What does this fold into?
Amino acid sequence: MTATPIPRTLALSIYGDLDLSILDEMPKNRKTIITKIVPKLREKAMFEFIRKEIKNGRQAFVICPRIEESTEEEKSKNIFSFDQLLNYEVKAVKKEVEEMKKIFPEFKIEMLHGKMKSKDKELIMTKFNKNEINMLVSTSVLEVGIDVPNATIMLIMGTESFGLAQLHQFRGRVGRGMYQSYCFLCTESNSKTTKERLGAMVDCHDGFKLAEIDLKLRGPGEMFGRNQSGFPDLAMSALKDAKMLKNIQNEAKLLFATDPEFEKYPLFLERYKEFVEKIHME
It folds into this structure.
């Protein structure tokens, strides 16, 4: 069992050694972030809206899936999905920052990505926090830990390259101040799955609900295997309901406290022994 979050969380859940807290309330005075799907034909109108927001003193994030454009060698190795290779190029920070400078020549625009030196990243974020940078084009390094109340625009390019949880995290980087904030989901994909996923982002602002939708669309994969998506095994299915998991944990603690030898539950003891023999969770 590795130290990475998902395997450890599953192991702790199985052993009943995990305290489960459900945080389903937003901080007070937060305005709902207006979320829109933006196809290629509507980008010009979106850019004009962003221009007005920045002229009013606000700031914008632009998120891209990659640092640099994919090479022909990467394409030949099918690193990206067939849908992506057929219809569009995955957006890259280094190219997109130049595109944004052409669209918004009057603004100060910088980029941020994981390959930059730490001191350079800190300098960029310090300037952005001080509103010395109007627009920041970045990779997913902005997913968590960023709090800039003056930023009201989250523009996500190539949204089909991100999972729902990531998209929800990106959206959470704005809407942290007193101003109305907006999240624009740009896509060139016409696939049914992409439309369903992005439609969920527009309609839902609940992280728990979005996680359930994501689970339904792509499947959780296997708990006792290597697949990280697709049809679930029984153990994974049993863990997808957080409230049910909490109730099971409480019942298990009560059972151990009142009947640790399972004398009143011989059938349960028999099934438990079969489970231990079949699955060695060492």
Observations:
- The mean pLDDT is 81.
- DSSP finds twelve helices and six strands in the chain.
